[in-house]
Amino acid sequence: MFATLAADEVQVTFRETAALDQSAIGAAADLLSEEERTRCARFMFARDRRDFAIAHALLRQTLSRHHPIPPREWTFVPEPHGKPRISADLTTAADLHFNIAHTHGLVACAVSRGADVGIDVEEIERRSDPLEIASRYFSVIETEDLKRCAPDDRFERFTEIWTLKEAYIKAIGKGLSLPLDEFAFRFEDPSALRFTAATCEATAWSFALFAPTHGHRMAVAARRVGTQVRPRIILQSDAVGRLDDGAPPVRLLPSSAVRHAEA
Predict the structure, then answer these.
(1) Pairing of strands 116-123, 183-189
(2) Among 39, 113, 130, 151, who pairs with 5 as Cys (CB 3.0-4.6 Å)?
(3) CA contacts within 13 A on the Cβ side of 17
(4) Which residues lie below 8 Å from residue 46, measured CB to CB, with a gap of 6+?
């Protein structure tokens, strides 16, 4: 059975990977193309090979939920800055857009029909100095906001900003060729996020920030294409993963609703 994506929907699916056994990892690898398996084998550490295989298999399975092509038969090609898209020979699926992400212990994908999408997942790490990194890469506004955070909260907020920024540059397909200080995210209160950028129409964008576990953050960015309707970012009710019972499903709101970023 296929689930039809509405033109304004972005479906998000994630999966925790730390507890997966070899049979699950092997089943995922079996869905990959030869090229993907070659790339997977290049990772030095087993956990990285695991997360790569699970992420790419999750994407294939998710695409097949929305279009009648078996998971193994999807083929992809890179755009100029490396963002993958569905190959031209799969013409009946040409309007599907997607993006994937993986980090230690968590993988995710976002799929839309007609909207540019980007997704990123990150661990909340406490090894580096967030203010030192922010002063080099973030906007002045974001850096000043980080300085106002309590020291114990700074690592979490830094990860949230970084994850949102990664999702945005992945959605526009430019990678790190776009400087990270040319756009900004501000947390104005617990239920409001403001996005500003000098080089794009901010009102065309939707953002969501999720806390799928205590130690991870997941951000999604989506831009409408050819329509005035701003995309709705939806965490799939039948997601393979689950939300940690103790973590808020959406960081910016007390419920599972998603607030669009304000221009």
Answers:
(1) unpaired
(2) 113
(3) 28
(4) none
Residues 6+ apart with CB under 8 A from 42: none
* Local confidence pLDDT in tens for the 263 residues of the chain: 667 788 888 999 999 999 999 999 999 999 999 999 999 999 999 999 999 999 999 999 999 999 999 999 999 998 887 888 999 888 777 789 999 999 999 999 999 988 899 999 999 988 789 999 999 999 999 999 999 999 888 999 999 999 999 999 999 987 667 888 889 998 876 667 788 887 767 778 888 888 888 899 999 999 887 666 778 888 875 444 444 444 444 443 322 333 444 43
- What CA–CA distance (Å, rounded) separates 256 from 6? 20
What the block records as the tokens of 133 is 């990194």
Tokens of 14: 């994630």
Rounded to an integer, what distance in angstroms lies between the CA atom of residue 153 and that of residue 10?
A: 30
DSSP helix/strand/coil, 121: strand
Q: Tokens in use for 213?
A: 């576990």
CA 236 to chain centre: 14
Cα(230)–Cα(234) distance, integer angstroms:
13
CB 15 within 8 A of CB 106: yes
82's torsion region: left (phi>0), alpha (psi -120 to 50) or beta?
A: left
Cβ 244 vs Cβ 214: under 8 Å: yes
The SS3 assignment for 231 reads coil
pTM reported for the whole predicted model: 0.89
Side-chain-facing half-sphere of 101: CA atoms under 13 Å: 29
